[in-house]
């Protein structure tokens, strides 16, 4: 019996790896089952939701907006007010959406908890029980004390599953007397894990689960099947699912147990491979050190020869300067040549004087000429001795392991992008010898610190999402491939720029200002299309004079009350006229109270048409601050003080257009989002809540830029 207990203790301790939460890396505490079937602690789910919510508020936030840029979901003008002002249809939902999406720590897929959030998840009672058994095995002799004893408490002998408490013998008799209902309670050995007798449905809290959804792979109740989220799903009874799953699990476990010899053999093989890897790694280090020592020897030899050549040249030049200096010192009175000539002049014998003076006179003349045309005997510059090591430095910088046929990966700039996060994709141009894994490196390009260290992340695919980037910054990316222990050289560096502020997430508002006769929203509410005046064509026979089609406005469903924010969109190339920008909630109601004649293009606000005083006054009263885009062109608005020619204000339409709102400074900027280049910036009145605003005339379409998530990796793999 004692041997069985020891064997059970060893077995339960051997499964510790399966009892660790992937988020907190500790033993599970009240584990919940996610839709992807991974389990995670209840507290960890809460923390992940808070982190995701904070990330959506300040994703890659800059220092200036980290503390002061919360994104607020603020209501637009209420339905009743708008109905009284203008027409039905302009209303906003009073519900404040909450973040229910976060990446699973186990598989990194995005998990959407839906409307019920954490309340819609099942507790993994089976895993919880196993963890409790493990804790008891780890504690060994640690006793569970009675919950009802007066101090000091006695050691408990049993636990009541109905009361969720542990008792000693005396307390159990007192609180569960014979002949009462409590005497019928279920009790077990001492435990701290109390689980309900019946598993209730999280969707319908008063219903017990009695069916199993084969599509969602989770227990459900009959109400879920009748009219809930599982009404069209294939379900089976709990007993049938229990029998089927238990048979499959038992069969698979028996198969693995039957292969125990094979598993042990493979474990032994892995141990040998680990030892071989250790030896090969040390040998590779020695060989690498040997190659570098040879390089050091070559460099040291070169260094010695170059230093020696410089020393020889320096000595020759100094010798020449020394000789020249001595000659010039001889020209001084009573020194050298001049002193000798002065002594010769004292000679009184004419024949002796003539014999000596002729040669001396030639030397004096030569010294006089050199004095008139002074020229140093040597050069002081060592320009000819400057070592050019730029090519060698470049080669040394590219020094890497011999690729042995592993192609150098190349970052695909067309598929790589930066928005709320960075998506980096790469491929092999040759498509012959691909790598098994990759190391993606990236670093911020800083003027203050030019040589920032590279951050690395290991990738087993050909794309990776990077989230820890700062706003309004430039980053360099490069990638290298690995095939076994062989590494390829790094790819060419690609530089991408992050948005000037955290990315602001919103959808088109289908209730506030949405005209369903002219505009068409998709189900996701991230795309709007304009139908080109079909009602006008029907009435064309009554049109006898020129007229203008009015703009159809639509705003975002989320308001901004402080901080810096950036969002991006794509305008379809066939669009006739599209306007994008921001709208003020305070002026929006006034605009609806006093509708203007919008049949004239003179009053279609884009901050650029006409600059008369009457338009300037009108511009300050309307809620919209927009720029015009259409016919594949971006029109830079003309200010009253600008003298720019019209052709200088018409730019090619960017593929992706970004809008940057600095609420605190009252500025709005319009960007080429692919290159993060500002095309136009102006002041804007931010006294109230600001909303992203759009307008369309004629045929056109606007697609909001999709935020980058882990799903991008799935799309890349599918491609």
User: What proportion strand?
Assistant: 15-25%
Biggest sheet, open or closed, and with what strands and sense? 7 strands, antiparallel
Give me the count of strands.
33
Main-sheet strand order equals 21-22-33-24-29-30-31
Class from helix and strand fractions: alpha+beta
CATH class assignment of the domain at 519-596 and 621-640 and 647-715: Mainly Beta
Q: Provide the CATH topology of the domain at 519-596 and 621-640 and 647-715.
A: Jelly Rolls
Classified in CATH, the superfamily of the domain at 519-596 and 621-640 and 647-715 is SPRY domain
Low-confidence stretches: 1-10, 57-97, 596-618, 714-719
Report the CATH architecture of the domain at 519-596 and 621-640 and 647-715: Sandwich
Based on Cα principal axes, name the global outline.
Answer: extended
Radius of gyration: 41 Å
Distance between the termini: 59 Å
The mean pLDDT is 77
- Helix count equals 16
Report the helical percentage: 25-40%
Domain B30.2/SPRY: 486-713
GO cellular component, one term: acrosomal vesicle
Domain COS: 345-402
Family: Belongs to the TRIM/RBCC family.
General description of the model:
- The chain is α+β, with helices and mostly antiparallel strands and 719 residues long.
- Among the domains are: 9-54 and 98-142, 2-Layer Sandwich (Herpes Virus-1), CATH 3.30.40.10; 241-372, no CATH class; 415-498, Immunoglobulins (Immunoglobulin-like, Sandwich); 519-596 and 621-640 and 647-715, Jelly Rolls (Sandwich), CATH 2.60.120.
- Helix content is 32%, strand content 20%.
- The chain has 16 helices and 33 strands.
- A 7-stranded antiparallel β-sheet has the order 21-22-33-24-29-30-31, with no helix packed on it. Strands 23-32-25-26-27-28 form a 6-stranded antiparallel β-sheet.
- Helix 10 (336-344) runs antiparallel to helix 11 (350-372).
- The chain is extended, with a radius of gyration of 41 Å.
- The model is unreliable at 1-10, 57-97, 596-618 and 714-719 (pLDDT under 50).
């Amino acid at each position: 019996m004692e041997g069985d207990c020891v064997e059970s203790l060893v077995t339960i301790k051997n499964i510790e790896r399966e009892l660790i939460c992937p988020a907190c890396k500790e033993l599970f505490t009240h584990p919940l089952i996610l839709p992807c079937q991974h389990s995670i602690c209840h507290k960890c789910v809460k923390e992940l939701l808070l982190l995701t919510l904070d990330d959506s508020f300040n994703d890659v936030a800059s220092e200036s907006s980290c503390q002061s840029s919360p994104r607020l979901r603020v209501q637009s003008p209420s339905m009743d007010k708008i109905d009284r002002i203008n027409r039905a249809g302009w209303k906003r939902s009073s519900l404040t959406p909450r973040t229910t999406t976060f990446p699973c720590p186990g598989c990194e897929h995005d998990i959407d908890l839906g409307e019920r959030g954490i309340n819609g998840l099942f507790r993994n009672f089976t895993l919880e029980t196993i963890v409790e058994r493990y804790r008891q095995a780890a504690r060994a002799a640690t006793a569970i004390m009675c919950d009802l004893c007066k101090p000091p408490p006695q050691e408990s002998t049993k636990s009541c599953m109905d009361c969720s408490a542990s008792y000693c013998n005396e307390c159990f008799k007192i609180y569960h007397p014979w002949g009462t209902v409590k005497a019928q309670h279920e009790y077990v050995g001492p435990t701290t894990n109390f689980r309900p007798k019946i598993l209730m449905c999280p969707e319908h809290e008063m219903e017990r689960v009695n069916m199993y959804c084969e599509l969602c792979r989770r227990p459900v109740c009959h109400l879920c099947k009748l009219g809930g989220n599982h009404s069209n799903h294939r379900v089976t009874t709990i007993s049938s699912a229990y029998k089927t799953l238990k048979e499959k699990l038992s069969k698979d476990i028996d198969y693995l147990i039957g292969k125990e010899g094979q598993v042990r053999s493979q474990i032994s093989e892995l141990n040998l491979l680990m030892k071989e890897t250790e030896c090969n790694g040390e040998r590779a280090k020695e060989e690498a050190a040997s190659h570098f020592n040879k390089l050091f020897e070559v460099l040291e030899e070169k260094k010695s020869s170059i230093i020696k050549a410089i020393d020889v040249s320096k000595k020759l030049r100094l010798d020449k300067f020394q000789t020249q200096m001595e000659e010039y010192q001889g020209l001084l009175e009573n020194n050298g040549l001049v002193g000798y000539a002065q002594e010769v002049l004292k000679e009184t014998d004419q024949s002796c004087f003539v014999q000596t003076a002729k040669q001396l006179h030639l030397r004096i003349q030569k010294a006089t000429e050199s004095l008139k045309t002074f020229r140093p005997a040597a050069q002081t510059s060592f320009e000819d001795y400057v070592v050019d090591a730029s090519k060698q430095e470049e080669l040394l910088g590219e020094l890497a392991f011999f690729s042995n046929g592993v192609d150098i990966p190349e970052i695909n700039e067309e598929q790589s992008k930066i928005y709320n996060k960075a998506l980096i994709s790469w491929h092999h141009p040759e498509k012959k010898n691909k790598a098994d894994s990759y190391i993606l490196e990236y670093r911020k390009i800083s003027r203050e610190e030019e040589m920032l260290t590279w951050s690395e992340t290991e990738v087993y695919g050909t794309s990776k999402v990077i989230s820890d980037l700062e706003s309004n910054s430039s980053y360099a990316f490069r990638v290298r491939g690995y095939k076994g222990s062989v590494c390829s050289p790094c790819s060419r560096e690609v530089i991408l720029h992050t948005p000037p502020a955290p990315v602001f997430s919103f959808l088109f508002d289908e209730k506030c200002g949405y005209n369903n006769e002219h505009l068409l929203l998709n189900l996701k509410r991230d795309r709007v299309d304009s139908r080109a005046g079909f009602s006008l064509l029907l009435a064309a026979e009554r049109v006898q004079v020129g007229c203008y089609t009015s703009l159809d406005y639509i705003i975002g469903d989320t308001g901004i009350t402080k901080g810096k924010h950036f969002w991006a969109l794509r305008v379809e190339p066939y669009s006739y006229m599209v306007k994008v920008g921001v709208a003020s909630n305070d002026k929006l109601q006034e605009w609806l109270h006093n509708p203007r004649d919008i049949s004239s293009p003179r009053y279609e606000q884009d901050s650029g048409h006409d600059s008369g005083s009457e338009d300037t006054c009108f511009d300050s009263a309307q809620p919209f601050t927009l720029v015009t885009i259409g016919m594949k062109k971006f029109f830079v608005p003309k200010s009253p003080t600008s003298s720019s020619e019209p052709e200088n204000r018409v730019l090619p339409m960017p593929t992706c257009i970004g809008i940057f709102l600095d609420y605190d400074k009252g500025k709005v900027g319009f960007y080429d989002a692919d290159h993060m280049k500002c095309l136009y910036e102006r002041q804007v009145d931010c006294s109230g809540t600001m909303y992203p605003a759009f307008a369309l005339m004629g045929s056109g379409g606007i697609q909001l830029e999709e935020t980058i998530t882990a799903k991008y990796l799935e799309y890349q793999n599918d491609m």
